Structure formats: structure tokens, C-alpha cells
Amino acid sequence: MYLKQKKESSVLKIDNIKELNGYTFQSFTFEVKENIVLINNLKDEIKIEITYTENKIIKLIDKIYKQTGLKINLNKLDDREILSFIQDKGFEKTLWSPIGRAMHDYNMIEEGDRIAVGISGGKDSLTVLNALIRIKKISGINFELFPIHIHPVEEGGKYGDIKDYCSKLGVELQVIETSIGESILTNEDLKNPCFMCARVRRGLLYKEMKKQNINKLVLGHHKDDIIETFLLNVLYQGNMGVMKPAYHSEEYGLKVIRPLAYVEEKETIRYAKKLGLPILHNDCPYETSDNSKRLKVKKMIEELAKDSPNVRSVMLNSIKDLFV
């Protein structure tokens, strides 16, 4: 099958990578052979050869994009391809094993669950989405996934790549647009805009979940988030409030779970880079502000970890009784 270049778009939607054979894009032409894609750059007279296997198609199209700028969207991937991409090598001990322990310790997923995944577009939410898709395909537990993204209208339609990414993995991203960013940033009376922003977003998620009869919400908070939040409460609020790995919201009648509770942030960073996840960069000025208390606590933990590499695990173990 030969496809002609679509001048109006640099996104090619196909069912199978073999449909790329004979396709032209700008100065590139493509030839697909068994486990090899040949790319000819007619302008610069350069030939590029990319080898691939049938269960590594996502990585193949990522390599093609980096070499040519052509974005390829496969209409659907089979379970073998999806699992091969998600699991990748080198994350069994640092990602999949701690996620499995957290899910077991707090009975996070059960038969018949309808589970929303809060997708911010950052490394953590995309990592936890991958983890849930992986578990759905290998566990034998029958549950449904509903990734939902709360998107500030002030940032424009930046979520296209994430929506395409979800489609590749066989799930549909739901987008709820809101103008909360402008109202919070312009309110000078707010002492804690980050807390208020998170609360408003969570409220929107809860309302949407109630409409769709969804009983659980997955959030991408990891071990570092839990430790930092505890220290923030102790140092600045004078209480021992914790971010629990799992809890039941009586107000909304649903369970909130954090499968990454035992995972360190450095591992979600490494995983996102290894897989080339389509990160949606946050334009919020409070994220990198020098006045950010969370950033100060994060740096404090980093300093402690230089002398005691296991300090995060030690701190998490010391507050586990508060999770009950």
C-alpha cells in the first residue's frame, strides 16, 4: 500500500507500520522491509536504517519522529506491543515491585472497579497510568480505566500528544477544561494557591466521577510527595497530617489510591526519559518559585540523602502507622 504525503498535516494515522512503505514526507521517503525501515533523505542524500521487532513498534515510531519530524499515530496496538513498551527493562525492582507491594498492602484494586486516573500530564501521572494498564493486562482482575485531565483554558490546547498517547495504549483521555488558573493566580488574598488549585481540580474530578459511576481515583503521588507533605505539615502547620497511600472519602463516597506510594521520584524521572513519555510541561509560576516551601523541603531531603541514601525509606517507614 502506497500513501501520498498529506501536506496539511505532519501526523500520519495508520493501522500497521507496513503501511508506511512508499510514503513521502517533506524530503523523506520510506521503505519498509522485514524488521527494517529504510529512510531516504532525497535533499541531503542521506540514508537511515532503523531495525525493529514486532513488539517494539512504539519505540520504532519514536525513532522515526526524532529522525524525520514525522509523527505517526497507530490506530491500535495489540496487548503484546503495549506490554513490551510499558514494562521496558530495568524497572522491575524500582517500579513494578514497589507498586505491586503498595497495591497489595492497601488492597487498591478489586474486581469490577471503575477507576479514574488523574492525568496532570506530568511524569508521575503518565507513569501511574502505564502501571494501571500493565496490571489490567497481566493480573486477571476485571476493572475499567478512565484517564481524566483537568486542563486550564489559559494554557490552550496543549494536551493533544497525551490524548494520542492514551489512544495508542487503548484508553480514551477525557478532558475537562476550566478557568481555575486565572482566578487563583489573580487572587492576592490566597495564602496557599497550590493547595486551593489542587482542591478545585480534585472537586472537578469527583463530580465527573459521580456522573460516570466511577468508584476509585488513582493519583500519581510518590514516596517523595508523601514524605515532603508530612514534613511540610510538621514544620509549617504544626500537625502530623499525612498523604495516605489509600483512603475512603466519605463526602464523595469513593476511594483514593496512590500506587506509587513506595516509588521514589528519581525512578519516575528515569522511566519517563527512557520511554520518552509525552510530558505536558507545567507553566505554573509556583512550581519553581524560590519561596516554595515544598521546594525547600525537597532540597533538605536531598541534602540528608547525601549522607544517608535510604533516608526516604526510613522516613516513610517511621510514619506508616499514620496511614491507618
Automatic annotation (TrEMBL):
Coiled-coil segments: none
Domain tRNA(Ile)-lysidine/2-thiocytidine synthase N-terminal: 115-279
Name under which the protein is recorded: tRNA(Ile)-lysidine/2-thiocytidine synthase N-terminal domain-containing protein
InterPro entries: Rossmann-like_a/b/a_fold, TilS/TtcA_N
Source organism of this protein record: Cetobacterium somerae ATCC BAA-474
